[in-house]
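Researcher: We're teaching a course module on how sequence relates to structure. For the next exercise, students receive a sequence and then see the predicted structure as tokens, so they can try to spot secondary structure elements on their own. Here is the exercise chain.
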Amino acid sequence: MRSFTLILVLCLGGLVAVAQGGSAQASAAPIPQTSAPPGGKPGSQAGPRAKTPSAKPSATEAKEVTPDAAVITIKGLCATTAPRAARGKTAAAAKKPVPCETVVTRKQLELVIETVRPNLQPAQRRMLAQQYSELLVMAGAATKAGIEKEPKVKEQMRLSKLQILASSYAREIQQKEADVPPADIESYYKGHTAQYEEAKLLRIYVPMVTPEEGKPADAAATKIVAEKIQQRAAAGEDFDKLQKEAFANSKGTAPSTNLGERRRGTLPPKQEEAVFALKTGQVSPALEEPSGYYIYKVISKEEIPLDKVRDEIKGTLAREHAREALEKLRSSVQPTFNEAYFGSPAPPPPAGEVTPHAPAPPSAAPAHSPTAAQPATPAGAAEAPKPPPASK
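Model: And here is the predicted structure for the students to work with:
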């Protein structure tokens, strides 16, 4: 029940004054929403901004409740500005007592919903309205106590504004670059045909031979076993039968030999190079990995037609263009740092050493931000399989 409060506190600090202005028009624009790449789908893109279903009333309700009609009235919470009805009237009328209440119109509340929870179900509107009312009360009390004038609070508000502006601009760039010309898609496809080669594969995994419990694996013995199984596989023996034999002395369960259809980029690089060099019906050598050996058979191979990967390529190019645009923006300036304060920069790591990534720039929606977008990984991408867990 309190999840809405957390979301509103994090995202709607800037909307408090809007809603407290009686029936005044909201000045904050909704943050654009983008589509996250579907999990596991290759090349999914955040395409042109789509209209997300909002938590708006039904058609019948919409006729009864106009945009300027009050949908929340909080008695006891005084508005920070005079109601619109009192503006521009005579001095006598202006002296008329203003009721201590805050009014949120339908238009204002729906702006809140579109900004924070665009997919909110109509049945949840009341819950959000309750939480939003509590937020307004808390924020009003904070303003009355002068908390917003405290240096740290002022700095938090400034940083929040910068964060929202930066992430919103990044999304705008992403939306702009989402319109990729068809000619660019076709050119990319022709220049990366190998990337769209697909093979239907069988695979045998030969785990490392361990002579005794607690003893190190016997690499030499494992190689002998793997080579014998490879020879039998190349001679046409059944892969499922050979896989079970490979696991005869293992505590784990033999994995399936059917990998289905795999594309380039979905296998470890060393294995991929050997597998895609095979012709249909051929069996690979026993390919060594730290966990054991892998033997592949190519059942079929084909080049995926452009129509099946058009959207994937479009997403890849859109992200690349957005990343290039943002990188161009970053490189257009050159900050310098006072070494007396920061100290000398750390020396570059030795070649081949892996270092942690630098922290990402502030973003209100990091999962959707194109600043961190990478070319899509084809479906089924995985590292070399790990040995199956031991049976209990």
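Model: If you want an answer key for the exercise: The radius of gyration is 31 Å. Strands lie at 70-75, 101-105, 197-207, 258-263, 287-289, 292-303.
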